[in-house]
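call fold target=Pyrrolo-quinoline quinone repeat domain-containing protein
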Amino acid sequence: MGRAEGMRDVEVDAPADVPPGAPEPGPDVARRRRRLLRWWPVALVLVAVVVGSQVLHDARARARVAAARGHPEVVGYDVGPALPVSAADPDLVWNEPGAVVEGVRVGSASTDSGQPRAVEGVDVSSGAVVWRSPVESPEEAAALRSVQPPWCTVGDPAGDAVTCFVQDAPTQEVGDDSWQLGAPVRSRLLTVDARTGEVTAERELAPVATAFVVEDVLVRAELVEDVVRVAAEDPATGDERWSVDLPVVTGALEIGGSPSPSLQVTERHVVAGLGGHAWSLRRSDGSVEVTSGQVWVGRGERLVSSSDRGRTSHLHGADGRFDVATAGEPVTFGLDDGSVPALDLLVDTSEEGRRVRAVDAATGETAWEYPVRGAAYGSVLLLHDVLYGADAEDVWAVDARDGREVWRSPRHPGGEPGPTQLGTWLQPLTDGRALLLAEPTGSDGTEGVLRAWSLTSGDAQWSTTLPPEAGGYVTVRDGVLYGGLPDPVRLGG
């Protein structure tokens, strides 16, 4: 068989625009023309491959950004150096968002000190206040001057009832312009009709108490004599599901000025704390799982405890049945997308220097370590198998699977202002494209700068002075970037 038909030499006539009488192309020119014509399909294929690869890369990048923005801790729009400012609802930004029933958000109303605190219903779509119900008389408000806002959670998912926890704690002046919160003198639960604001029931708890509804259970913790009583009940019927008394260590708790018990409810656990002690209980039946000075519910519902302020942590698994010691305490996540689920991530502040440590959650064996510089503290982001953070000198990205450094870049590039004041909490954020870090630049925290680095390369992208309304602090709530204390503003978007 001869040469394939598709690869035959082709004789080409001279172009039509060749002037009459022009000399014919020489043999070398003719050969080059034939060669180009022979290989032009290959060139087209190469161009198509390059263009297709770029299109595929761009599509994957867009998909990664979209996936990141599916998390409420990620800004849901591109953030740039131009930061338009708009008003924001303080209750939605800084306070608990409240309970939403049939389009009405029930939560605490903004009140001035000495004025009656109140619960209000706000139309979610319009922002209009539908109703407002005081939870104390003007005389009580003037006497206590309590700043503890009511905390409302859905009490009956099938109905219109909302449960609001109200605690009375007097405000005590300790100087010309300063005050402190005294010990609670009364705690109660109110059942509120979300449609009308009518208080349909009121229930007294122990003065030092905490209570709220999570999904289908109302959990309460009360200091009763020398025990912390933790109980779970049906929020609709009040039927108790379980109750357990946790003894408070003698001398560890001073009742005067003590805070209320802390409560955390997760998918599998209830963690209560008071007076430097913490207990993890099984959510299903109240069985005590772990007792220590501090107890965290970590990744994958796994329990971590510490009795020496985090210098040593103990890993207990999701059921609390084993105890493996390791150095450090759990990192503070600004975002955890569930990458590398088998590893627990800790920060070790031992004398050998600070470092992030990844340990096998089943064995406690160290998988990798990454050193961080200086005595800077803050939260980290875990996104698409990469851990992002900041230290006293740099921002950085680490492959969370093996601890390999992906990139490290200066926090203050290009001769910008030096390291921030000691004690600044570093809180990296992201919009899915850039790593964002805000830092106060004024001594009083009223000024600040926002910087951005590429998530993929670590290259510095831009730096901008935060608007005066934002001060030196920003945060993310439900995909929106906010700034400003105590009066928040929305930034960008």
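return ok
The CA atoms of residues 214 and 265 lie 7 Å apart. Residues 1-14 have pLDDT under 50 and may be disordered.
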